[in-house]
């Protein structure tokens, strides 16, 4: 190649117009404009710049250990020994049950954490997951139907990409939804078919709303293949009853839909009137009544939520139910292209589904730590909900579960005009102002999808201690002062 | 919904014809037919069934710790403390440098391993990666250009999906290739454009072969946007010289291609005549000569290979070079949809790129462990190559680097007919027979793509100790006996 040729040649760089249209189309607000601005402010604060607050409170993402929640001792102690088995030869400040558990894991999995595992994950852990599901639901579970994953997200993405044949395929997702769903569908090149949750009824899922959404999609030429349900709800905080789940399953069955059940918040229920019921349990009950026989179901769980809050470890699993063997072979192939989920995440799943039991000292410590976290989350959920409902122009449905409140904003016309003038959605404009005024980072409802003309934001119930008290004081104060500017 | 309706309804299950066409099209042989059969045999062996061998030797995948390679002490000791920081308050059998490193990591990252990190990974680790690349290549590196990933695979998949605008886009990949590339392109829905490596010249990459492949693809209507190069080579074991890299870069620049450099085997070079030179270093040198200015490059690295062999931890990074800010924003968004790479993998990257230095006790132990692994790999690479070249009908190019040999088989016509009779590619037929006869699990060349009418298989150089000695004796014996059946 001559130098002359080189010099004259103008290399065409990639541009947004020449890269993947699917990636450009995807949106992911949880780490979008408001959190990006929050990161800038954090850097500025470190550099000594002055703001009306001394630190940013990150309520944009359910990330408990970023907000002072501590990891469970049993999990981390066992994990340390499995990471570094030579420690087992030395005196340690750990309970015997910790040592025994680490040794049992290493005996079942002699290559430890350093080797690629089976594409579905350690078989010992899949066995523990199957036993957990079996005990939870009262129905036997096959370890072969379990796929360990890097968090629940990886499983959700695998399932969404699997069930969509092509660009005319569509998956029904709730409105509001967790944006992983819309983003993953965009990346797959398939269509998101939104079904509205009924805000006035505590964000309930009504069959008539499912039917309306389904029919509109079919009319638009979409091949609807699946419905995703998030229970307990993200961002809504709503919890489905067993009857509501049965209604959804029977409706999905009649439409030949696969059901994707995002059940990562199954431990996070804060009201005495509700308890977690899995889609699998309801399905098996219906099947025993000759209903919904063979309905195909995916269920997802994670170590990131519940009371573990081990977001960084990226542990999770997917259970597949009633799939054909030929399709299962495709799921396996897809998992194998990812080689295997990270091994510490797999170990965390083992410890999540198989905690210390009974009256052992380790079990007592475990339950004390667990109850302390869950009691505190329950209190913070109730106080967050009450705080929002105390503000004029804000209403918040019951925070029955999960880690979020999704309050509704009644915004004055002048504010909406001001937002339009700077090219922002009104709820984005509101959230940006909240960040600038009090350092609280939340995500506008537009990032989750919402009924047109309504405005919301999602916040977590995760700030704790004095930070939470400040948050409870500052949010109403900000709201009043900000609204006053647009009367 | 009435029971009658339920009973009469026949639910349409997903079938291979109704799920994602892209997933069905993808192939991934490294965990394909031969390894699946090997897994069955392992289970049968456990159950007491009799085979002509007592255990399966898994040479299908570069998974060092599954074959007795031990993890490096420094990495695992620091990791144990970061996993369970309460250990820092107790007397431990660790060197002071281990304690200091764990404390420094926790100081830089106060939320430890339990929180989601920045979507690109811990900023402290990205800083260490940038310093490592800078020292390696002699050119400054911006931590903002580093994306930590779950192994290198995740980065490769992100880059491949980004550079393909649509289904007419194509990426040039070597033949033979690591099947992650063809599988990921199939999942993206884009085209794989194979360019042949020259086997007779030690699997070299020749510009005339690139040109021929490129022109044929363009003639077929493919918009070629990128070229992937694996150096050191997988499955070939070949190592590129700086001049060869410069030739590839200059050619890619003239064609407006993005270059994806898979450099995960950069520590695995076994011949004194070759050393690792990064694509980045060569690019920066060319740019200093006013050549290839602004050529866009992705480079990938991993904790799974080299001498760490930490496959299960899923640590890795991607460096992006010369990308436009608007495209970088899309890369960031894609990373953020994955939330963050697993944190233990991130810590492993930190310890890979920033090992203990100088004359400290920890550094001496580290170097002793490293050299022992690399010396042994070097010996096994040379002995594997010599063993294959000692067999009539088998030839093997120099195993200069990486973890694999890719010997070529000259197969008799009768064997090819026998394979066709059972519907198998001849090299798959051969590999299945090897597994059944001596328990050695390798992957047929057809899984990596090969020049039509040639047959190969990939094996790792990872068996060790007595297992390796047996392997060296058994493979030639199997070959002779199997060939004798088809004369």
Automatic annotation (TrEMBL), chains A, B:
Pfam families with a match to the protein in the record: Aminotran_1_2 (PF00155)
Transmembrane segments: none
Family according to the record: Belongs to the class-I pyridoxal-phosphate-dependent aminotransferase family. Alanine aminotransferase subfamily.
Aminotransferase class I/classII large domain sequence ranges: 102-464
Entry keyword annotation includes Zinc: no
Signal sequence region: none
GO molecular function: L-alanine:2-oxoglutarate aminotransferase activity; pyridoxal phosphate binding
Keyword Transferase among record annotations: yes
UniProt subunit comment: Homodimer.
Cofactor(s) the protein requires to work: pyridoxal 5'-phosphate
Key words of the record: Aminotransferase, Pyridoxal phosphate, Transferase
GO biological process terms on file: L-alanine catabolic process
Name this protein carries in UniProt: Alanine aminotransferase
